[in-house]
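During the reporting period the student researcher (J.K.) took over the structure-prediction task from the postdoctoral fellow and processed the backlog of single-chain submissions. One of the processed entries is reproduced below for the supervisory committee.
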Amino acid sequence: MSSQESKFYVSELLDLSKYTFERALADDDWDQFIERSPQGTVFSSSVFLQATGHKLSLWKAFKNNEWVGVVVTGETDDGMSTCLIPFAIYGGIIKRQSSLNQPLPQIQTEEFRLIAAAIGHLSATYRTVQLGLCPELRDMRPFLWHNYGEDGDKFILDLRYTSLVSLENSGVSVDLDKNNVYKSSSKSRRQEIRYGFKAGVTTRSIDQIDDFMHFYEMTFARQGISLDREEHETVRRICTALQSKNMINMYGTYTAEDDLASIFVFARDSKRAYYLFGANHPDFRDSYSGTLGLFQSLNMLADTGCAEVDLEGVNSPKRGYFKLSFGGTLTPYYRVTLHQQ
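J.K. obtained the following structure tokens:
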């Protein structure tokens, strides 16, 4: 065990010597591992990772030659540090699917050891370590205890939140008084939904990425922000790649005059949908298309068999207020960073 791996571990209690790490490729085997793990999301799939065009730091974790986890993050051009991957909300350390009927203490111990071993490996390999973790990775103790009781560098934990919306008992044909999304929404949000219906606002499935990119540009222009060309191309690549694998749902919301007012883009995996992008036409920002469009999009997702939507971040006041008003569960996740001298 390296000195990096042993800084807070008592060998009699926590032996990490059996863990090894190998560079990984985002291939079919990788995707199957991500699919099976409760911590795996669309953001760690090969199609999403490759579409970002970013340099990747992907690792397989083995215990006694048995594949038990992966590490998903970006890598700086000089190869000296890890970094976040553009638009990949979650990733980091991902544990394999637990065995059926495996006792909870054993599941928790395996997760702890995997995280601890990954920290040891990454801190010995890179000068700076940065990871964007998924909400299902709940044990932060290995990060908090790195260099515990010593003067060495410590991890910085950035607490963030998302909103998880259940689509149970929801759908386009479900009456409002029985619709779970509607009933779970705030009073003011329910009022805006009703106003939107009265105004003749409608939503339907669309597939034109060009329309979305035009709206995306207008959204930035309205805020006086010039959209970076590289970001523009990355967003287009992600949408195109996901669409080619049927891993995306796009919805357009229209005024009563059939003007396209808002577009909502959701990434999909077998577990849930993720609010990826949204954009509004500046001329129709007061048309209820934002509220009713998202509400109708959630119900259309329910009709596809989707059980849950991750609204992907409620980490600024206005965005958080809007998304949480649809009644989701406030759910924490972390970004962690280690700067080593």
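The committee noted the following: The mean pLDDT is 93.
J.K. will present the remaining backlog at the next meeting.
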